[in-house]
Amino acid sequence: MYLDDNINHDMISDMTLPQLKGLCRELRGCILRTVTKTGGHLASNLGTVELTVALHYVFDIKEDRILWDVGHQAYAHKLLTGRYSRFSTLRSNGGLSGFTRRSESEADAFISGHSSTSVSAACGIAAAMKLSGRKGSVAAVIGDGAFTGGMAYEGLNNAAKSRTGLVVVLNDNAMSISKSTGAFARYLSQIRSTRKYYCAKENVKSALSRLPVVGIPLEKSVRTAKNLVKDAIYGSATLFENLGCTYIGPVDGHNMEDMIEALSVAKMLRRPCVVHVFTTKGKGYRPAEENPGEYHAVPRKAAGVQTVVPKSSFSEEFGLELERLAKTDSRICAITAAMKYATGLNFFSHSFPERFFDTGIAEQHSVTFAAGLAAEGMLPVFGVYSTFLQRGYDQIIHDCAIENTHVVLAVDRAGFVGEDGETHQGIMDVPMLSAIPNTTIYSPASYEELRRCLKRAIFDTKGIAVVRYPKGSEYRSYMTPAQDFAYSGKRSRTLAISYGRIAGWLDEVAEKTGADWLRLVKIAPLPDWISEIAAAYERVVFFEESLLNGGIAERLGAQLMKRGFRGKYETVGADGFVPAAGVEEQLIMYGLDRQSMTERLLHP
């Protein structure tokens, strides 16, 4: 009735309250129907429907900017900014991204995919608008979970000293992926339970009625609004006020009228302002409301129609093995950055709560915290997605590697991860980590190898020990007979090399083509005898599910060059950012599926 590609701010701002509520129902239904088919982030998007409509009612993206932290809750924003007809392509090859992308739409003010970045980006955008003489406002929507990340406070610290029209919308649903933890979560809970409503509704209406046009900051109206907000605050000042921001809240994020009023006042103030709204993750769909963590991100087809039953996966097998090892050694500790269930650490947390640490969305802190544990004789294991470990790179180098501190990094979602697209692919960890001295990297291809590698990483490896493994299930079940590699022996002029998930079918592909094969398990540091084996062949083909630039294939190529290798050396892998598509599609894109590998070996 309301949704189409032409809907815009002018149309929304002319709607009556019943019409706005109808638009919300339509948005919620469209999101539910679509994500049921495409998979994606369900609970987070259902929880921000009214907030999104209120934002587009108050802020005009022709002049203003709306930023979404992480962007996994911006589906309604996409539907309200000309992407309704393409919404069914969500998270598919060539379709809409599951996050915000500037290259996708002018309505997306900034790229998002990782958390806690929106306030910093909004500060920069607001400063640029001021420098260029533009009068627009900037709204940054950030969740309470993202506020466990230190970058959010860095941004807020600088936002408060600016004199720009910056509105930080704190979307408080007491969740990140799992339930939010830590002092900030307790602080917000206290605010929600002790503070009165941000202002009397009639007073707000009276103040707004005196504005000729909402959003034009006439001096008298600004003074009135400031007094209104000041009178609304009860008790001691909030953290946000102490940092120099005006605070409005808490506001019911599902009450359209209240949301519009609060955002209108915040925009009118033309100064850094925090609007604290509380929402229900999964709002409007009972299974998601009752199990917001389970329905945070749901797979294709199974989404919303039945309880999501996880299959056996590398994440689960890692978690079970770590729990088993922890029963034999009380020094083992587990760390997660707000992803207990996603990384399989729920088993450990249940059995050993005193040795389990959820740091919130704080990967930098997690790495250094692990180093602190290790410095006092503990055996810390940090379970983290490959894409999120990027945020702790300096800490890995400075706080762990330099002094050869023994920290174990269990790197989940290594390689291609599918529909989440460029921001989430695990293709950077190998180039990133293999460049760091005192770092050993294992890349198992099966559950049995994972279990053995994890044990070796914890008990038998010095310095930083990395065990990296892919999203999903193993392709084949077996254990490599040797410690660090498996080799067919010299029978052919061609050698195929690989590691990790795709190495699970390397021997099968090589047999079909008559080539020899070498499957690596320990991939860094790369020993000289690997190049010694490879140098005996006329042709060497290295298949790598990683970024080739700085990867293991490139390192082997450098070793072969030093040996004076005169044969043909080929590398197959990712040569740039990997777009959204299914994992199998992505493997085909980069020539890493069975058929492509076979054809590459058959046809030089």
Protein model, in words:
With 604 residues, the protein is an alpha/beta fold. The chain has 3 domains: 9-287 and 294-298, Rossmann fold (3-Layer(aba) Sandwich); 314-468, 3-Layer(aba) Sandwich (Rossmann fold); 486-602, 3-Layer(aba) Sandwich (Rossmann fold). It is built from 25 helices and 19 strands. Strands 9-8-10-11-13-12-17 form a 7-stranded mixed β-sheet, sandwiched between helices. A 5-stranded parallel β-sheet has the order 2-3-4-6-5, with helices on both faces. A 5-stranded mixed β-sheet has the order 14-16-15-18-19, sandwiched between helices. The termini are far apart.
> Which architecture of the largest domain would the CATH scheme give at its second level?
3-Layer(aba) Sandwich
CATH class membership of the largest domain: Alpha Beta
**CATH fold description of the largest domain:** Rossmann fold
Q: Could you estimate the helical fraction of the residues in percent?
A: 25-40%
Query: Which geometry do the CA atoms define?
Result: globular
Query: Into which percentage range does the β-strand content fall?
Result: 15-25%
Number of helices: 25
Oligomer: single chain
Number of strands: 19
